[in-house]
Amino acid sequence: MRMLGHEGSLGDRPHREESKMRMLGHEGSLGDRPHRVFIHRSVIYLFYATVSMVIRVISVVVILGTLAECRIPSISKLNNFDYPAINCRKHSAVLTDFGGVGDGKTLNTKAFNSAITNLSQYANDGGAQLIVPPGKWLTGSFNLTSHFTLFLQKDAVILASQYESDWPQLPALPSYGRGREKPGGRFSSLIFGTNLIDVIITGNNGTIDGQGSTWWDKFQKKQLKITRPYMIEIMYSDQIQISNLTLVNSPSWFVHPVYSSNIIINGLTILAPVDVPNTDGIDPDSSTNVLIEDNYIVSGDDCIAIKSGWDEYGIKVGKPSQNIIVRRLTCISPKSALVALGSEMSGGIQDVRIEDVTAINTESAVRIKSAVGRGAFVKDIFVKGMDLNTLKYVFWMTGSYGDHPDNGFDPNALPKISGINYRDVTAKNVTIAGKVEGISNDPFTGICVSNVTIEMSAHKKKLPWNCTDISGVTSNVVPKPCELLKEKEIECPFPRDKLPIENVQFKTCNFQSSVF
Ligand SMILES: *[C@@H]1O[C@H](CO)[C@@H](O)[C@H](O)[C@H]1NC(C)=O
Ligand SMILES: *[C@@H]1O[C@H](CO)[C@@H](O)[C@H](O)[C@H]1NC(C)=O
Ligand SMILES: *[C@@H]1O[C@H](CO)[C@@H](O)[C@H](O)[C@H]1NC(C)=O
Ligand SMILES: *[C@@H]1O[C@H](CO)[C@@H](O)[C@H](O)[C@H]1NC(C)=O
Ligand SMILES: *[C@@H]1O[C@H](CO)[C@@H](O)[C@H](O)[C@H]1NC(C)=O
Ligand SMILES: *[C@@H]1O[C@H](CO)[C@@H](O)[C@H](O)[C@H]1NC(C)=O
Ligand SMILES: *[C@@H]1O[C@H](CO)[C@@H](O)[C@H](O)[C@H]1NC(C)=O
After folding, report:
1. Selected catalytic residue, list 198, 283, 301, 380
2. pLDDT of 15-39, one tens digit each?
3. Helix (H) / strand (E) containing 391
């Protein structure tokens, strides 16, 4: 355990711990062997050599060997660095301090768990950061702690174990009533946290590789007994930053904040093959005050899906997803949406602001999915500035998504969909401009579409728009929308105020290697 740059405030105890830890670190490290060899040789020479010259030469070798040894611990190989974060930490450790081995083969679950357990003791003393250095760090799932930063350096790769036994099981989420894919529980995510405050997962574009292929394969062959794990799940937590990382091949969803608040997710490159099941990029679920910006996502499912629980379970828990901003997102998702709202929305979804987003070769743009039995609402959704190229649907809303957790859903629980605003959209190579379908005794209302230019593809459907059970207005839209959207001189609204999450200031934090 190293205490960096805080000697003054912590007295001399940390110094002792520090030197103890360094010495421990040498045992079994390469530095240890030359040392013993040199002592052994010098003893022999002291006994048998009479030429003082030889002794002097040996002494020099011993001293050089000792100096070389001081540079050997992993810590001294790490350079100092700065990074932006919502909070900086007083204490630091490197994964290798806890026995981590970055050879891509050794399982590091214990190293992560003991490091984080140890660092959790500093939660109320300035917090701690755990540095994952360059290397391939194979691990099963592990849990985060409060006032904690996990920092992945460039060329650090966390590799997820492909053995189910390395993934503990968790009970179903209360707002889902069961696993999303199977009744019963579910596998814990690779990186999991619950009931936390102030958690950061960031890095200099280090990588987390879910090695999802075995999971996708088992899922498709129906060999799994419970629901697949996500890559990162943070539950019942406040103040979360997930930034500047590359996330690849999650077994299922990538990033899942649930029942949480004050979340910033930025600078992520999220990559999965476009034909694998349920690899959603970022899924804010029953969460409030979420800022998602500057991300690049290629996925087999929705790049972003905003959710809030499933039918009677979600209604009972009643936690909405609200005050959510998505901007500067680039998405490639040939089978799904740039941003989906739902289909699980039974806690409600409101005040979502989506701005300056791009989709390429994607099935649909900002899509609403709901069903009878979901209840709750999707309202006050604002979209401004979409640049779309090669889409099946630009506007797509569905009130008959189905997909129920069980037969216990309430057929009278109708979702209220209202106040859905889109403006400033350009789209090219589009098959269907709009398929906007409400529910027969429960129309979707307050839909507004303005300043939209859609170039249809050569394979376009005869009818570019098809609307049922909806109402709303439209202005300056090409091709001409359906009759149910009334022509009106209007600029669809987009809020001018800022949400509190937009005012969070990043601090410049640093990691300092020890000074000898
Ligand atoms: C955590 O670190 C402290 C300080 O170095 C050390 O005394 C303690 O033994 C460690 N605890 C565990 C559980 O590793
Ligand atoms: C992680 O947290 C979950 C939920 O609290 C718990 O069931 C699990 O045992 C924890 N895992 C470890 C390694 O502590
Ligand atoms: C991070 O790494 C990914 C994958 O190599 C790369 O595509 C992306 O451009 C990198 N991001 C930055 C900011 O360097
Ligand atoms: C992410 O990395 C970029 C540089 O690629 C940097 O400008 C930005 O401040 C970083 N942000 C966070 C929150 O890590
Ligand atoms: C219409 O949308 C385009 C982007 O698609 C934007 O550049 C332009 O400023 C918008 N026009 C008005 C009048 O808002
Ligand atoms: C247009 O979309 C079709 C699919 O509908 C795709 O096959 C084709 O490559 C796209 N063309 C261009 C120029 O992007
Ligand atoms: C329009 O949508 C409705 C409802 O989904 C469907 O029944 C109808 O066949 C569609 N019409 C055309 C022309 O595609």
Report:
1. 301
2. 333 333 333 333 323 333 333 333 3
3. strand 377-398
